[in-house]
Amino acid sequence: MKVLGIETSCDDTGVALVDITEERPTVLRSFVSSQVELHALYGGVVPELASREHLKNLPLLVDALFSETEHTLDDVNLIAVTSSPGLKGCLMVGAHYAEGLAYASGIPLTGVHHIEGHIFAPFLTSENLREYPFLALIVSGGHTEIVLVEDLGKYSVLARTIDDAAGEAFDKSAHLLGFPYPGGRALSEMAELFNPHQAQIKDTLPQVMQGKINFSFSGLKTAISLLIKRAGGADVHVSEELRAELCYLIQDAIVTTLVDKLRIVQKSTGVKQIVLTGGVAANYLLQERLRSFCESEGLTLFIPEARYCTDNGAMIALVGGLYYQTRGKLTPPAVSSRAPLG
Ligand code: KG4
Ligand code: ZN
Questions:
Q1: 333 lines ligand 1 (CB under 6 A)
Q2: pLDDT at 332 over 90
Q3: Which of 63, 58, 19, 16 is closest to 35 using CA atoms?
Q4: Is 266 helix (H, G, I), strand (E, B) or coil?
Q5: Confidence band, pLDDT 50/70/90 cuts, at residue 130
Q6: Measured between alpha carbons, how far is 110 from 4 in angstroms, rounded to an integer?
Q7: 286 Cα: distance to centroid of ligand 1 (angstroms)
């Protein structure tokens, strides 16, 4: 079954053609058009501008998708579009475009929850993930939660952030250090340059909500801001060594919190399979720490390929396709900025 996936919930326009068979999915083609440069001018996503960019880019990307494969719209068995959660105007552009395409072509259409897309993203390149249950640590610019996945559509959110998301903590810290939006990845790359033998900073960052299940990043953000100020990190003339050390300390504090919460939830549930997903899942230190935790506890860890950690159309095609293939289920793409998972 060939599924056209469309993702426009935030600032990335994603389209993909995914072939889903009984054995495994194959991504035939996936394109993502990033709006990062546009929004960097404003230090964050401007919803109105994001919607207009989707409107402009979506038809071009879909045309490019078909011109770069041997397939046409006639080969498509299902159109899947992100319908929630996200920026309302952005979701509406994707959903209305998909509705028009489905109406004109007669192809069935289904709406997909964005977070379900992230949860199943490792399935895109892994054969044996379809065993349940598993715990999904979803870490992105807008979400930070640990979800128990007992089946397709059967989810329990076991831990969530009570304020900022992990990606926001990375991006806001990066902003304080002068990196352009979104900054999480740039901060992480800078942290890699830190040499522990040249450590200069005596201060430490607190372990926020230690021992508790839920996440909180806003207190950490305040502590980070004070640390940067005291070390003179916001100064444009600060040395590269000091900047790298600050990045290292910030990344270490965010990653420690994430791994700590996952450890607590894993111990209390005893679930043996872990999925790490969402934009922040591309972080090398988070991957490394989770890998060593999973190895020491005999757990299996699944992480999507880097290009499927961040927002993309392939993960949306996969989830829409799984519901349709296994249950014949189609969900009308009723746009909602805040719909709960499941
Ligand atoms: O999943 P995503 O593409 O969009 C949302 O649904 O939010 O996640 C984007 C987030 C941004 O906050 C970005 O800075 C962060 O993921 N991110 C990273 C890294 N790569 C992307 N954060 C830390 N380290 C990275 N390597
Ligand atoms: Zn996302």
A1: no
A2: yes
A3: 58
A4: helix
A5: low
A6: 10
A7: 12
Residues 16/326, Cβ–Cβ less than 8 Å? no
Q: Is the CB of 117 under 6 A from ligand 1?
A: no
Kindly report the protein residue whose alpha carbon is nearest to atom 20 of ligand 1: 185
* DSSP, residue by residue, 121-135: GGGGT-SSTT-S-EE
What whole-number distance in Å separates Cα of residue 286 and Cα of residue 293? 11
The pair of structure tokens assigned to 130 is 């379809």
- In single-letter form, the type of residue at position 63 comes to D
Ligand 1 centre from 309 Cα, in Å?
8
Give the position, in ligand 1's atom list, of the atom nearest the Cα of 9. 6
Q: What is the DSSP letter of 155?
A: E
Other CB atoms within a 10 A radius of the CB of residue 285 amount to 18
For a pocket test of ligand 1, which of 144, 172, 185, 285 has the largest count of ligand atoms closer than 8 A to its C-beta? 185
Atom index in ligand 1 nearest the CA of residue 114 equals 6
Contact 206, 220 (CB under 8 A): yes
Model confidence over 72-86: pLDDT tens digits? Answer: 999 999 999 999 999
Which tokens sit at 140?
Answer: 């992105």
**What's the chain's length in residues?**
342
pLDDT band, very low/low/confident/very high, at 127 (cuts 50, 70, 90): low
Its pTM stands at 0.94
